[in-house]
Amino acid sequence: MNTHAFLGRCKALLMLSFVLALLLAPLASAPISANGKLKIVATTSIVADLVKNVIGETAEIVTLVPPDSDAHTFEPSPSDSAVLAEADVIFEIGLGFESWLDRLYEASGSKARRIRLANNLQLLASGTMLRLLVSDFESAPSKLIDVDSGKVIGRYEVSAPTYPYTSPTGRFGVKIQTNANLITAVDGGIVIEDHGDHMHPYKRDPQLTAFRAEGRTPIHYVAHAGQIAIFNDGNGEVMLLSERNFESAEAGMLIFKTARAHHGVAVPLGDHVVLSVPDTQNMDYALPLGIQVRNLKDEVIASFADQCPGLHGEASSGAFTAFGCADRVLILERNGNDFSTKSLRYAPETPSGTRVGTLVGHEKQNFFIGNFGQTGLVRIDPIAGTLTPISLPMRYSAFQLDAETGEKIIVVTTDGSVHRIDAMTGTIEASLEAVTPFVFRNRVPRPGLATVRNLAYVTDPAAGEVVEIDLEAMNITRRFVVEGKPVRLAVLGVLEMDEGDHAHEHGHAHAHDHDHGMFDPHVWTDVINAQAMVRAIRDAMINIDADNAATYRSNANAYLAELSELDRFVREQIAQIPEASRILVTPHNSFNYFAERYGFKTLSPLGVTTANADPGAGALAELIEEIKALGVKAVFPDNTGSPRLMELIAREANVKLGKTLIADALSAEGDTATYIGKVRYNVTAIVEALK
């Protein structure tokens, strides 16, 4: 329940070109109401107060969510739709905080300009938007873990040990049951919608899709260029499909045949596919001899049929695809519709039997990493034409490149350690004891490894756990209990987060939970963020209503000065609280930005939203124990929900119940009816209880 451990103090800088365009692009004319004033809508009382301090009397303003009301659970009325229909400008927090606003805006037919105030701020992560599909060493059900909650949220029966893989966008987990000749797919429930100027990921319930394909010993899975190729060893056939196959029964797949059954591979390249070429003379030899390139009409475009004897292992990096061979690494390069190869042969002194049979690559790099003996790897550089051995301290079971940059090699060795290695120099930068030591033998479970962003996930079959590792800090951030003997895993969800993307919960009726997505939207609790929001309001209003530009500048400057004084007040007051006592326990994590700015730890039973009204007995008991262990002095209810939950926590943890804090909405009247009054009141209440 430690929120800062949950956040990992993770920050992301989110700059959306859409908002910049809104702020910078001049208008020919601004719509004006009958009394000559702009009609402005603010979603919440906090937003409204910031806007009022900039616009003064130049415009009319209406607030949608009333004071002392919860924006998380707000239900718009038909009159709210009418207000939006007449509005010229809408100021909102964004980041899915007003999860109902998109639907209301669309239903109203409004043409108002929407200004999202959180989009230009440095944001704290409120969740990973990741899920893990984990398979067992035996035929136990595959399990889906929600990384944010740490809970197993899906179990999927299998009839044979399963190999899970990630689909191209990360939405689906593909389950290959080789011994059952079956391929199925799980919709992980994290869907990314394209909103034109930005991408919106959101969560919903996971489900086993209707997709079901029967193969002949399906083994090798390759996802590349938005496509999926699955090679069936039992008949030498390749299934070429896409995520559309998991969404619709109407989507077809292409089938490519090779000369005979063999342990082969296929690599999709968009409008072409690379297929392994089997040995047709020695029918007992299972490994291919080379490759050929076909177009999607099944016509052979290029053939390199004898250039990779004993082919096993492939990967793509940048413009290249590499294949491991008995005596070399074969590099395939594409230039338009022309394909060529280059052979990088092993050095004469290479020990007998040492070869590349497993490869990893990264789209941002032009090199590969391959296995090379029991205690070694090799860096493969297609441009320089070099093979550079990398020594490891002992035998290993799995290796990957870090997903974020591709500059680091992540390796799991048999002593249970995870190592981070500089891919350019081969130097071990950091090591971490992560999982139970194991032996490398056939039919003995051993750890699996997956990387995503700056994280690694490693299965621990002996402990029945999955371990999460922060690859930058090289420490264990969480352990997920899955029971059984977890071995292989695939990461589903938002695999990478680009600038210009942001996440939110759409609030569909079937949603499993109602979090805001990857970023915490409660940005206003940091006074410095409030100043940035005021500047955004000022700039937007000057752009929309240039005639009153001087007023907006003057009002904003005066208010910014007041906020600077407020920030000084907050720091002076908080200095009275011993650092060890700066632990803020509230119903939901609406004070993370305040905590980050002013040096607090935050705890809460509900996460970043009040929509999850029941924290569950287990989670509540865990929180109470943590409060006791940390020596927390007081817990605080807030003004947007019932105080009963915090009263219960205070009673069970035997701590004070502090004053009710003003959280996501201002009060209807009194000193806390303004943003500055709210902050001063909250800080005073916190200091009184914790000093």
TrEMBL record:
InterPro entries from the UniProt entry: AdhesinB, Bact_metal-bind_prot9, Lipoprotein_PsaA-like, N2O_reductase_N, ZnuA-like
A Pfam family: ZnuA
Entry GO CC: cell envelope
Gene Ontology molecular functions: metal ion binding
Tree of life domain: Bacteria
Predominant cellular place of this UniProt entry's protein: other
Signal peptide annotation: 1-30
SUPFAM superfamilies: Helical backbone' metal receptor, Nitrous oxide reductase, N-terminal domain
Family classification: Belongs to the bacterial solute-binding protein 9 family.
Listed name of the protein: ABC transporter substrate-binding protein
